[in-house]
Amino acid sequence: MVRTTIIVRASDSLPLAATVDDEQTENALQEHKQQAKLIFRRITPNAEPRCSIESGQYTLHYLIADNVVYLVIADKSYPRKLAFSYLDELSKEFALSYGAKVDNVRKPYAFVGFDTFMAKTARLYQDTRNVNPGGSNLDKLNDELQDVTRIMTKNMEELLWRGDSLDRMSHLSTSLRSESEKYRKAARNINLQAMIRKYAPLGAVIFIVIILLWWRFT
């Protein structure tokens, strides 16, 4: 289920809005909210726009849109499709209501009133047992579920202990390795062709001389 949601400005991690949690939820998620702050600090202009970060019994899903980071902490068993559909709903409404003001605000939680919309939307996504593909109240959501096969998944330990960033270096590295292999194969072919062009005439001459010598002495 959806546990809590935090919205910050991507450029400087300024909190813009967050769900109002009860004391029990606040205590249970205290460590994971600290981890969320770490994620916000690790976000760069090249960061993955959608990412899921596993941490114990919870997963932190975030979405970046228009210099705003939308992050939800959900149970690890909660479907990623629903998590990102939920974040999409928030991003669309937030952009419509406050998009023009995001870059100019200076005080934290300037858009605290957005909690009302977050709470109402979270209730729709709160329990996956209520998400019936044939249900009338969530029909429109089924058309908006994201294809999550390309969304990066990381582990919180990678961020805490290995210092991993949230950018696309892994994809870039894979691409570079693939391109390097192509260039190596092309280089081998070019070298082979060059050797053939260089030594083929000499080889032909030697072959002809051998044939002539063989013919003469036989």
TrEMBL record:
Membrane topology recorded in Swiss-Prot or TrEMBL = Single-pass type IV membrane protein
Classification via InterPro entries: Longin-like_dom_sf, Longin_dom, Sec22, V_SNARE_CC
The record's keywords, sorted A to Z, are: Coiled coil, Endoplasmic reticulum, ER-Golgi transport, Golgi apparatus, Membrane, Protein transport, Transmembrane, Transmembrane helix, Transport
Q: Where in the cell is it found?
A: Endoplasmic reticulum membrane; Golgi apparatus membrane
Enumerate the GO terms in the molecular function aspect.
SNAP receptor activity
- Tell me which GO cellular component terms the UniProt record holds: endoplasmic reticulum membrane; Golgi membrane
Q: Where is the V-SNARE coiled-coil homology domain?
A: 137-197
> Which positions fall inside the Longin domain?
6-118
Superkingdom as given in the UniProt entry:
Eukaryota
Where is the chain membrane-spanning?
A: 199-217
List, alphabetically, the PANTHER family matched.
VESICLE-TRAFFICKING PROTEIN SEC22B
Q: Which family does the record assign?
A: Belongs to the synaptobrevin family.
Q: What protein does this entry describe? A: Protein transport protein SEC22
Recorded source organism is: Phlebiopsis gigantea (strain 11061_1 CR5-6) (White-rot fungus)
